[in-house]
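Run log // design_07
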């Protein structure tokens, strides 16, 4: 995973620590899981970003 994707992962984790329904309890564990998904070709950062935008009440185009 490159620097940009890693930075997005950290931002997504930071944003979801205060998630209203399922807050992240272990940011390090989530980062390890995201890294494993990336290595397996299953990491979908775009879906996480869209979900954050929807939760914040912003229109997704």
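design_07 sequence
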């Amino acid at each position: 995973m490159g620097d940009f994707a890693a930075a997005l992962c950290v931002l997504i984790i930071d944003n979801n620590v205060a998630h209203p329904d399922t807050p992240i309890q272990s940011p390090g564990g989530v980062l390890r899981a995201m890294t494993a998904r990336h290595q397996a070709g299953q990491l979908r950062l775009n879906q996480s970003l869209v979900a954050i935008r929807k939760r914040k009440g912003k229109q997704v185009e």
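The mean pLDDT is 91.
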